[in-house]
Amino acid sequence: MTATNTKGDGQSVVREELSSVVIRFAGDSGDGMQLTGSQFGATSALMGNDLATFPDYPAEIRAPAGTTYGVSGFQVHFASKDIRTPGDAPDVLVAMNPAALMVNLAQLKPHGVLVINTDAFTPANLKKAGYDHNPLEDHSLDAYRLLAVDITKRTLEAVRPHGLSSKDAGRCKNVWTLGLLYWLFDRDPMPTTQWLETKFRKMPDVAAANIAALRAGHIFAENTAMPNGIHPYQVPKAELPKGLYRSIDGNTAAAYGIVMGARLANLPIMYGSYPITPASSLLHHLAKLKHMDVTTFQAEDEIAAVCSAIGASFGGALGVTGTSGPGLALKTEAVGLAIGAELPLVIVNVQRGGPSTGLPTKTEQSDLLFAIYGRNGDAPLPVLAAATPGDCFHMAVEAVRIATQFMTPVILLTDGFLANSAEPWQIPDLDSYEPFPVTFQEEDTEDFQPFKHDANGVRRWVKPGTPNLMYRAGGLEKADGPGNISYDPDNHQAMTKLRANKVAGVANTIPAASIEQGDTTGDLVYVGWGSTHGAITQAVAQLREEGHSVSHIHLRYLNPLPRGLEKLLRGFKHVVVPEMNNGMLDKVLRSEFLIDAKGIDKVKGLPFQIRELVEDGRQRLGAKPEKNSNVVAMGAE
Amino acid sequence: MTATNTKGDGQSVVREELSSVVIRFAGDSGDGMQLTGSQFGATSALMGNDLATFPDYPAEIRAPAGTTYGVSGFQVHFASKDIRTPGDAPDVLVAMNPAALMVNLAQLKPHGVLVINTDAFTPANLKKAGYDHNPLEDHSLDAYRLLAVDITKRTLEAVRPHGLSSKDAGRCKNVWTLGLLYWLFDRDPMPTTQWLETKFRKMPDVAAANIAALRAGHIFAENTAMPNGIHPYQVPKAELPKGLYRSIDGNTAAAYGIVMGARLANLPIMYGSYPITPASSLLHHLAKLKHMDVTTFQAEDEIAAVCSAIGASFGGALGVTGTSGPGLALKTEAVGLAIGAELPLVIVNVQRGGPSTGLPTKTEQSDLLFAIYGRNGDAPLPVLAAATPGDCFHMAVEAVRIATQFMTPVILLTDGFLANSAEPWQIPDLDSYEPFPVTFQEEDTEDFQPFKHDANGVRRWVKPGTPNLMYRAGGLEKADGPGNISYDPDNHQAMTKLRANKVAGVANTIPAASIEQGDTTGDLVYVGWGSTHGAITQAVAQLREEGHSVSHIHLRYLNPLPRGLEKLLRGFKHVVVPEMNNGMLDKVLRSEFLIDAKGIDKVKGLPFQIRELVEDGRQRLGAKPEKNSNVVAMGAE
Amino acid sequence: MNATIPASALKKKDFASDQDIRWCPGCGDYAILSGVQKAMADIGAAPHQVAVVSGIGCSSRFPYYMGTYGFHSIHGRAPAIATGLKLANPDLHVWVITGDGDGLSIGGNHMLHALRRNVDLNIILFNNKIYGLTKGQYSPTTEVGHVTPSSPYGSVDLPVIPARFALGAGAGFVARGYDVAKELPELFVEAHAHQGASFVEVLQNCVVFNDGTFDEVNNKKTGSDHRIWVKNGEPMIFGQNSDKGIRVNPTSGHLEAVELGNGITEADLCLHEETNVERAWDLSHMKTLTAFGVLYRVEAVAYDAAVRQQVADIHKKKGNLSMEELLRQGHTWQVD
Amino acid sequence: MNATIPASALKKKDFASDQDIRWCPGCGDYAILSGVQKAMADIGAAPHQVAVVSGIGCSSRFPYYMGTYGFHSIHGRAPAIATGLKLANPDLHVWVITGDGDGLSIGGNHMLHALRRNVDLNIILFNNKIYGLTKGQYSPTTEVGHVTPSSPYGSVDLPVIPARFALGAGAGFVARGYDVAKELPELFVEAHAHQGASFVEVLQNCVVFNDGTFDEVNNKKTGSDHRIWVKNGEPMIFGQNSDKGIRVNPTSGHLEAVELGNGITEADLCLHEETNVERAWDLSHMKTLTAFGVLYRVEAVAYDAAVRQQVADIHKKKGNLSMEELLRQGHTWQVD
Ligand SMILES: Cc1ncc(C[n+]2csc(CCOP(=O)(O)OP(=O)(O)O)c2C)c(N)n1
Ligand SMILES: Cc1ncc(C[n+]2csc(CCOP(=O)(O)OP(=O)(O)O)c2C)c(N)n1
Ligand code: SF4
Ligand code: SF4
Ligand SMILES: [Mg+2]
Ligand SMILES: [Mg+2]
Fold first, then answer.
1. Are B537 and B425 in the same domain?
2. Domain co-membership, B192 together with B267
3. For residue range C183-226, what is the model confidence (pLDDT) as tens digits?
């Protein structure tokens, strides 16, 4: 399909219409690729495309210029159709220097578009990136559609009038490049222009220079004859459900979900946390919401963070803490205390690559068994997981609901991929959420017992400050009812069972297991959890289109598992669990149901690609893999 | 059977010969019951009996006198036959006060012997213990063989010549009671006399008074006509395998095993620990062994403890740490570092009742899943468990072997029951242990790579101080080989698999799964681990005597599981896992083998009783429980 | 009773719980418990307005014996839990009870940060120079050479001086007492009156594992020759016969204990200046003498008050934000 | 170079690893790295005799850039790891590199205990008053009011003064420097020479998240009016024109900065006494002035040396114990 609009010189432009495009921006850590990519994404969302983004950056703040390990990437997938992942392979690669090219070229689709800043291809940079020859000169890029531009030089020219230092001027080259791509893909530069104005409010020179660079890139593209095979494109709006939309990433959604949950519970929030990648922005978001009954406390470490949240819950607020793997490890002991003291507590764990410090800026799902089993003693707690950035909102509300209604700590698992990637998100109808207001015990009944349990094994919450209900909580075993220290053997067994049954009982308040896509019985079911949602959805769709009998179950509740799951699973010949770890949920399903669940384990710090799962499905189901599927590059005729 | 020896007045005494006796000493925390019980045990061991002991005391140092929760108990089971547990129910109960009677009477066998200190049965004490009437007066004890003695008064008389304060004098009443029981059961008072002399070396008055009390109790028994039904007993030597024996508890055995392991590895030990019940005595034992290449470091907390051990291992020593549940929780993060840095580390975890602070002085097995799965990221490590006090020695050696040969942290699980109870232990032939000396890398090969892995996935250990091999270790993901920071996706997957395979490979160096008792196939197999060993052994023996097809498998390696286990398990109709937790090993077996393993979960802070398992077996196998089994009291005609 | 403390209808026993006390007979903890209960009655806040948070240790069993709200938490974490509690429930009077092991060994970091942030907590550290509950190992305040189960050949660890640690951490209120001192309740009342973190070290006798360690200073007869109770603005005199005092050493400029006579008169002694942090530093660890009382006190905004103030300011400036508004902030677009 | 330091055949570059440095261009860490490498060359211990242990943070990446043994461990735990390392391998020169977040926030407790035990470690704390690696949140040394991602309305936490914390912890060597100071290598050499724990705070500029925080003291032009380098026994004079100094305030007895003139002469200034802990306390936090150099130094037995001594004593007293003897200790009996 094609469409037309007008070129700068008044000539009409014929734009090829595409249903989806994947662009990867790549450059030095200091090149501003995260900013460029997220602006491209935000603009595409605003223009009505479906969208998925994937930032991928090193753990260093600004690794040495020109090195391969200092390369920072940001992938944007925008489309006129429903997409769920940032895309397996880029259609367009923007390489701001040789290292970026070196690291990313292999992933570019055959015949893909390659935008290169030739000014950065100096002998020194080529050497740092490990090139013996300049790839721009040795025909090694002939298989691609190359758009080689002296971006730095053109940027410096464009911003010269604004009198920036040459360092600052050079920094505008990402925005210049953005301008170029905006023209190429018919994006409206206005939102970015406004954003630059706000961001550099206090530095008007810098704002003006950046806006000039954006314009200059745009104009350059408009007025330059594109090399063979490259022409202007257009990606029409997606058909999204009606409603008001915004772009959201997982940490923002989780932060807002916690606030929403607290409102439904009618509680103020005390968020105690210690910064850690990729969870820190939960703290940053909540710290801004002091006018929404949110107190944030940046603790001295993760132990103090979780303890402050427990103290707050003891005090009658909603204690919340957020962290990532190493931090969760440190919270272990205190979480046991919250279980023993039967206090609500929400723990958001944004998973990252492990073990130990591992890969701090990369995504992984390897804290699942730790979340379920990782405490001394019999110490069960509910474990939830969000499937998409937007879903973090809903699951955070659920975490608050369960924590407060069951007087228990709850772990909500997300991951680095969810935390950092953005998607268009339909702002939910807040009235559709059923409130679950907490009613503190206030009556001074004669037989008041702080650890008396209702039929669900739940005790009443008493807020210190309430007259006549003074009680003592603690981590020693408590007598069921009065809560005094008890070493009685039968009491301990009873309390252990009570704690276990209480958590098991959460299953009665969550949706029963269901099929996300496909039939309720069949050859193969992929059982996923967390951020693999998008890749599994798309892969299952593709396999089903190919005629395979494949379904998708996605678990948002990992402990307890939803009712009816076993029956569903038994309807399939193969039960396969794709996970970004070395095999965890499959262990749980095997133990729980004695079903021969198999894992697909990807432990690369990267999300699944659709094609990896499609190929897995084809192999299991006996069909020959289709040749060259997924490899027709954008716009390649 | 009967035997004779001579009474004090020259008359010969007819002693009834018994094959086994269970005595429970019970009194206030300050009454010295632990000391009394362990002296009785030690003497019985010295006299050639088989022996098992079980101390059971409150978490408080000295809870208020006379209260039921302040009661401290110590059970001794001594026999002329092979016994494996401290006995289900006492034949003899020594109750030093009403509270001790209140708490323990229900467990005394019908018609059992009841030794009571009548002086403590004051109205105040009776009230504190919750008695409305004095049980010595209301015939409520008629079903027992009562030996009521004014022990306090007689003790005070006996020690008067030694001029102690009345408080100190009163404290000798436990030793007086011991003297009485020594005569009753024909124990040699000499070892205790010597022990008192050594213990109170610096307080000769106290030593003399205690020895006088011991004698006085003995003489009293000798010269007093015993009430109806009580007469002197004798428990002949047990037929133990030939060899040199000593009495040992689990923590002593584990401490010595670590030293043995280090000698086999040819390494000095750095034991970093923070006191915690019931693990503290590991530190106490090792602190005494400074002349055996043992350095101990009492750290500021468990994190520093494990970190100091990791630092020591990095430095080329054997880093060891010991703790219990809450402490293991705190070590979680650092253990991940040792996994990532591929350093040896031995962690002894003496399990206690949880969750949280739980029941600090009670036993439990509820850290199993935590030990296996309790770390952020994919962080596998070997997990071992000792089955008996003496076995702690051997399994500690194994822990050291695996840690040093596989460059990995190892968790050795024991528990409060093993830690505190004593058994006669045949001192092993140390030459039977194959040495496994560590050879540090010292050659400066040109292609030296600190993280180069051999076929088993093991890297060489380099000791800082070695010229030319300077390298950097750390918790970020490392490039396989050079060990530099690597964010490479394929490397991370490869390293994750390598770490997993390395641990899995430990299975090749441990004994294959085997049957401990019974046939290799049958109706029912009990699969145990840890301190349930004794109870399962005895129960299986009894069930087999009754004609049931029952076997016993006992796992000393929980991760990886021994080779051949699946095949063995498949040979049984029922696979049942008795555990002192809410169901853990059964989960592992189910997940690993898809076998419908069932759990018997006892979470009472107390070891299994034989009869509990016997009854379980009978029920599962359909036979009617025999009436009144196990309830024929000692010497009851 | 100090005249500045309001008379109150509350009695000591109103602050006792119904639980039996499980400390060893003769333990110094009893006297401290009694002192706290008396102080609370004197302060006059009702039991339900008070929460006592502790860690783990003999001392940390404290909350069970108080008829107030209480939290017997985990080892070393009481200051962190109390911080969260105070932020969440600012009207509560929050007390922290800890031991030399709980508060200075495993919990040293939370102590440091509660003190430097100046959270409005009343922290009482029971210093018995030993780990009581785990049966007598040495602690970070144990003297070098002490033989314990974990130091069978004598400890080689140099001890930390709790008051100096607190000053180094930036504490705004540093005081010291001992278990059986009659001045104890008054000290607690002062600690309570201070806005921000108050650190009170109480020397406490462990009869079972460290009996008599503080005999030098609290011995009925000679103790007063080795201790001084300081009071702001009053001359620093002490001794059985009030014949000793503290003066500024003319050469070093620092405090030292001296005997009166031989040319040294009362006029040479200095007055206690409780707001002088350098003086407090000197006082906190003197050679032959232990100083008791409020060693240091300075006013500063309490952390929790500053947090609340910031919240109030933002509320004032930005008004309330509804959930709807929050979600609609920034760029949104309508799909029809 | 200080004349007391032995000439050595080693060069700075012998202490560099082959790894590319991954700090931001312009980061103060580069200068400190160079200073440490120079100091090590001056000290003259070979690279294989040195181990550098760090936690997590930008600063803690340090070991990767050193051609010595190194351990980039976990957040806050370097002092504990280094303690174990030193106990296990006493001949190594062990350095600890940490940041204000790593060493004083999460790692404050291990820092406290390494200092009070006096483990022979050379501890360098990079104080950039910010969390660099996690992108700019405030740290425990950040000034009140600082706006960061985690304090969008300004931080309300009162900061800790690292040198005071160290003194409070009982440290025997407390020094301060700043990243680009030429005196830095010498300071490290002194730290190394000290037996026991040496604590060196280095003010470090984070160009990305906290650029210019230390401008007042390290500004090329006016910095010298706001900083003083103290040297034992030398008069405390400073200023662009050496027209300022430190004297004892005659009333308070404590140190204060003064301008010379108006009746104040050099004779009124005091000499730096580095063994005087009270003076060090004063110097560590002055109103208008930042003191650099060795603020405090006192000799005491290092912990690791005491541990080794005890082991040696016991060996001497008891001889070696074989495994056989150990197992046969106490009561044994033979079954035949
Ligand atoms: C995480 C953890 N580590 C260790 C322990 C064991 N423990 C309990 S109390 C205690 C020391 C208490 O010492 P202190 O605070 O001085 O209290 P005291 O008993 O002397 O009053 C220790 C080490 C524990 N309960 N939890
Ligand atoms: C247990 C744990 N918590 C949190 C983090 C995240 N983290 C890494 S570095 C850092 C702060 C570092 O600050 P500082 O020590 O001042 O170092 P700088 O980067 O400023 O040099 C934090 C919070 C972590 N890696 N591990
Ligand atoms: S052990 Fe010591 S501190 Fe603990 S209760 Fe007994 S006397 Fe008190
Ligand atoms: S973020 Fe700051 S401290 Fe970290 S490397 Fe960059 S400039 Fe240095
Ligand atoms: Mg103590
Ligand atoms: Mg910093």
1. no
2. no
3. 999 999 999 999 999 999 999 999 999 999 999 999 989 999 99
